[in-house]
Design a protein that fits this description.
Oligomer: single chain
Number of strands: 0
Structural class: mainly alpha
Strand content: under 5%
Largest sheet: none
Number of helices: 15
Order of helices and strands: HHHHHHHHHHHHHHH
Shape: globular
Helix content: over 70%
Radius of gyration: 25 Å
Distance between the termini: 35 Å
């Protein structure tokens, strides 16, 4: 009891000391630096994109949505996201489960391999795929003999996007699974629950936030990926051009209005993702309180 009281006194003295030592201007300066940094790096560039997109009015902005190349870029971006996000979600769950629930040789190496896309430049990742699946690559002659085209086509864009976004779900779920432990799962198993029942009723509720964050990050990165997709797609208009590639091509062709309109659409997709996350957080928080 005495030691606890002494510890509390020391903490209180430290807090009091830090409060007395911290001058008011320090807090104001730090807040000012943070706001200035966010303004220069995030808010002003984003605001400028919206200003440029609507500078000539809503009519010219909406007119860009009638461009077949623009429509095709939207369709292709959504298609790649619809394919890649579920694949990497399933992979991330399986990888996180295997890493946290089983001890095996090379476990640290597997985690490092999952993190590899974080360290590799997207352009280098695209180049690796070209050297593997391209006409002069290792598998090029075989694929050509089978009349299968990977590079400069949709399959390469899917593979490149999947490679770049592979770690997000796994890296978000692994720490949550480790923190949750196995007590609840073992208790459910002793009560006769089957594996899928344990996953659906015990594991999934425990990891839902980590999983949700991983899915959101994966989706956002897939829709905004440029480097790897640019290398493997060839940036063919109305065939292999996603929204980020469309922005770059339109800007290079001095079609600034179309480039800013596509940028606004990408920003709106990101905002929708954040809003959905916030709605899910609030609903789940309410349920948790009621339970």
């Amino acid at each position: 009891m005495k030691s606890n009281a002494l510890g509390g006194d020391i903490i209180a003295q430290n807090k009091a000391g830090s409060q007395t030592r911290e001058a008011p201007w320090v807090r104001i300066a730090l807040i000012g630096i943070a706001i200035s940094y966010l303004g220069l790096v995030l808010f002003l560039p984003a605001l400028n994109v919206f200003y440029q997109a609507f500078r000539n009015g809503v009519g010219p902005f909406l007119h860009n949505f009638t461009d077949p190349a623009f429509i095709n870029a939207i369709r292709l971006t959504l298609l790649i996201a619809l394919i890649v996000v579920p694949i990497n979600t399933v992979f991330g769950l399986c990888a996180a489960w295997a890493i946290t629930r089983h001890k095996f040789p090379g476990r640290a190496l597997v985690i490092s391999i999952i993190d590899l896309p974080f360290a590799v430049s997207p352009v280098v990742a695209g180049l690796m795929l070209v050297l593997l699946y391209g006409r002069s690559g290792w598998l090029g002659p075989t694929l050509e003999a089978l009349n299968i085209r990977i590079i400069f086509a949709l399959p390469a864009m899917i593979i490149a996007s999947a490679f770049i976004t592979m770690p997000f779900v796994a890296r978000e779920v692994i720490p949550v699974l480790e923190e949750a432990g196995t007590d609840q799962e073992e208790a459910a198993k002793t009560l006769g629950a089957k594996d899928w029942q344990i996953f659906w009723r015990v594991t999934l509720p425990n990891i839902r936030w980590g999983l949700l964050y991983g899915v959101i990050l994966t989706n956002a990165r897939v829709m905004g990926e440029f480097g790897a997709v640019s290398v493997v797609s060839g940036n063919i208009i109305r065939k292999t051009q996603t929204l980020p590639l469309y922005v770059e091509e339109a800007y290079k062709q001095y079609e600034s209005q179309a480039a800013f309109a596509a940028s606004v659409l990408l920003a709106c997709l990101a905002l929708v993702t954040l809003v959905l996350k916030e709605i899910l957080e609030r609903k789940t928080s309410i349920k948790d309180v009621q339970e």
